[in-house]
Structure formats: C-alpha cells, structure tokens
Amino acid sequence: MNTAEHDRMAEEIKRLRQALEAETQHCLDVQRQLDRTYADFEEFVSTAAHNLRQSLRGVASYSQLLAETCSGRLDAESIALLGNIQDDAAKMQSLLTGIVDYWAAGNHDVAPTDMDAVLTQALLFKDKLLAERGAIVTHDPLPAVMGDFATLTKVLRHLIRNAIEYCGTPSPRVHVSAKREHDDWVISVQDNGPGIDPAFHDRVFGAFKRLHGKEYPGNGLGLSFCKKVIECRGGRIWVESAPGSGSTFYFTLPPAD
Questions:
Q1: Which of 109, 185, 186, 113 has the alpha carbon at shortest distance from 146?
Q2: What is the CATH number of domain 111-253?
Q3: What 3-state DSSP class applies to 251?
Q4: Is the dihedral of CA 170, 138, 231, 228 positive or negative?
Q5: To bridge 230 with a disulfide, which of 56, 139, 150, 237 should be the other Cys (CB 3.0-4.6 Å)?
Q6: Do 189 and 249 touch, CB atoms closer than 8 A?
Q7: Which helix (H) or strand (E) holds 117?
Q8: Is residue 251 within 8 Å of 237, Cβ to Cβ?
C-alpha cells in the first residue's frame, strides 16, 4: 500500500469514526428524551389515578350516605338508582386499578421468589369467593423462580379468580402445579370449568377482550396483565382448553437457582 492509499484509508476511518460518534451521541440524546418522557407520563398516570380514586370514593361514599340518611323516604326506583350509582363507582374503581396495574406491569425488579409463598398470598383475599362458590384450590409443591413477589401474586390471583368465576359447575376445582422444562419452570393453573374454544385462545389475553357478558364481573384486563408481566421477563403464557374439558393456563419463569 502506497502513501496515498494509506492516507485515504486513514481519512475514511476518521470519517467513519466521527459518524459513529455523532450517531452514538444522537442515540444517547434520544434515550434521555425518552427517559424524561416516560418519567413525566409515569407521574401523570400516578397523579391522575390518585385524583380519580379520590373522586370515585366521594361518589361511592355520598351515594351510600344518601341511601342511609334517606332510608324509608325513598321509593323503590330511587333506591335502585342509588344502587346503580354505587355499582358503577365500584366498577370504575376496579377498572382504574386494573389500568394502573397494567401500566406498571414489568417495571419491578426481579429476585428469587418462592411460588408457594406467592400462592398463599394470592389466596388470602379469596376466602369470600372460595366460600361463596364452594371452590377448592389444591397445589403441588411449587418452585422458587426469578420474579417480583407482589406482581406474581397478582398473576396467580387473576388466573385463580378467572377459573372460579367462570366455572359453570357447582363446586369449582383449581389445581396449581409446576414442572421443569429445559431452562424454565412451567407453572400451570388447571380448572374444571366449561373450557374455551381454541378459536378464542389468543383473544382471551387481549386488553379489554372478554368472552362473557355483563353477567360476569371483570374489566377485561386481568389476563392481559398476566401476559404483559410474564412476557416482560422473557417468559411465555398460553392456554390449553376445549369446550367441556376445562382449561389450563401455563406460564414460564426462569428458576431461582
């Protein structure tokens, strides 16, 4: 290589290095802007949720107070209207909680997490539902995985609640188990409900997508929350089911060991 060729190559290398440095700086600037935007939006969501909750609590409290203080003076239609107000306020509070949970899903740090303890926590608030439906929840020994305790509690809570609420049999039965497959643990939640047509297996995980009418409670965010949590950690979630044979929801998580 002669001197002229060497100089041209050196100049080209210098130009490419300068271009790379400029592009790197641009990417850093964009990332900082995205971080600021995300932080601003996170603050907006938190503040809006707080204010909305406060207003909804006021609607629920004042309508309840009105029903109590005017007891005996209201006709049946007025009592029914107050009941509708209270029911809708409760639904809006549930929807708001679901939206905030969905927004925050995947933003938590992971650590070794005992799924037995997660299941125990998930079942604590189920006492009333379990008693009302005569539901039985059983489980095999569950492993320790990498995840966030509070978030995984909500995942099991949603899956178990769905299994119980949508079960058409007099005594819903839910079984939680786990098996090791390659580098992951596969957690399963099996029920004895009516099952789901394979055509709707993907639809059930969509935000605000519901297969049932208003006769069933819910806001259509539970399973989409589960999907976002699991996939943000590099896992998978899916359902295996057919009409009349119950459903089994599966999700994968990395082991803690």
A1: 113
A2: 3.30.565.10
A3: strand
A4: positive
A5: 237
A6: yes
A7: helix 115-124
A8: yes
What is the amino acid identity at position 77? E
Q: What is the pLDDT of residue 209?
A: 63
Measured CA to CA, the distance from residue 231 to residue 234 in angstroms comes to 5
Question: What CA–CA distance (Å, rounded) separates 225 from 227?
Answer: 5
**Domain residue extents for the chain:** 12-104, 111-253
Structure tokens at 162: 């769905």
Amino acid letter at 114?
D
* pLDDT, tens digit, 9 for 90 and up, residues 20-55: 888 988 898 888 888 787 777 777 777 877 778 888
Using CB atoms within 10 Å of the CB of residue 135, give its burial: 0 to 12 exposed, 13 to 18 middle, 19+ buried: buried
Task: Quote the tokens at residue 11.
Answer: 């100049």
125 pLDDT tier (thresholds 50, 70, 90): low
Amino acid at the residue 170: P
- The torsion region of residue 113 among left (phi > 0), alpha (psi -120 to 50) and beta comes to beta
Residue that is written with structure tokens 């049932």 in the block: 212
Question: From CA 55, how far away is CA 43, in angstroms rounded?
Answer: 18
